[in-house]
Automatic annotation (TrEMBL):
The lineage of its organism: Eukaryota, Metazoa, Chordata, Craniata, Vertebrata. It comes from Cyprinus carpio carpio. GO terms for cellular component: cytoplasm. It catalyses: L-proline + NAD(+) = 1-pyrroline-2-carboxylate + NADH + H(+); L-proline + NADP(+) = 1-pyrroline-2-carboxylate + NADPH + H(+); L-pipecolate + NAD(+) = Delta(1)-piperideine-2-carboxylate + NADH + H(+); Delta(2)-thiazoline-2-carboxylate + NADPH + 2 H(+) = L-thiazolidine-2-carboxylate + NADP(+). Coiled coil: none annotated. Pfam families: OCD_Mu_crystall (PF02423). One of its GO terms (molecular function) is thyroid hormone binding. Its EC number is 1.5.1.1, 1.5.1.25. PANTHER family: KETIMINE REDUCTASE MU-CRYSTALLIN. This is Ketimine reductase mu-crystallin. GO terms for biological process: thyroid hormone metabolic process. It is an enzyme of class 1 (oxidoreductase).
Amino acid sequence: MSESPVLLNKHEVERLLTYDDLIPRLESVMGKFSKRDSSEIIQPVRSVVPIQQHSGFLGVMPAYLAAEGILCTKIVTFYQRAEGSSLPSTQATVLLFHPEHGHVTAIMDGEAITAKRTAAVSAISAKLFKPALSEVLCILGSGQQARSHYDVFTKLFKFKEVTSMKTGNTSKSFKMCFCVCDPVLYTLQVRVWSRRKEMAQRFVNDLQDPVTVCSSVKEAVIGADVIVTATGASQPILFGEWVKPGAHIAAVGACRPDWRELDDVLMREAVVYVDSREGATAESGDIILSGAEVFAELGEVLNGSFPARREKTTVFKSLGMGIQDAVSAKLVLEKWNGEH
């Protein structure tokens, strides 16, 4: 008789799942996935059931990693909520199974896993593709994905601008004055935009660092070196004419074939990377509707089979993968078992 499954809530998952441990595992599994060895990794494209009456979808994301002994699936719902709705747009649960016996070994909150593994993969893309000198981070969105991206990007990278201002001038970030003869100062340079400005302000109020709330997408992205799009948009909000040449865009919203965050100009002029070619060409409206060519998978760059075109404007289009959930959940369970 199998033991009862371990039940882990959102708080426990967030506590146990750290970026320092997670990122190396994600790099490893995505590299393995891109080698297309079906005896080692099996991951079909996400199955989606439309819930048209309520503007929602139910997605199922299974994965089997034979070498690691991981059998997992995530069940996720995502909705286009009305403006001002207090309901979450995405909810998820992750199940781990015993790969030999077939019983469920763990049931855990999937929202925390989704938020952290998505942000971690975006950070991997930024490590590979962002300009060598990156001073300005821009985040479009103010939800859970925006926060997880802020956390990992400011943890791993130093976004800063040199401040050496004449007396009487004001730093946009700190609203303080500096004499030109003062030592050079480095200030955190992060900009945030949300469709509802009060939500962007609430996002900023929860942070310990100074962040600039912008009133328009254009204001937020002009001159930005790294741009994260984590919105519920179904039509383009980010336009290529606003994007600094050589910038890197991590696009994590618009996960349906008729949804967009990025316009045709940006998609066609940038070097486009994806997590999975099969997923991107089946699910990404940004790719399907623009006709943009996929240059490489992230795993192919990690394997060294394709280059990181850091000198170009780059887009990493993230759809999310079952293998990412699987290694994240296995890591959470390993840590929990280590404590009990």
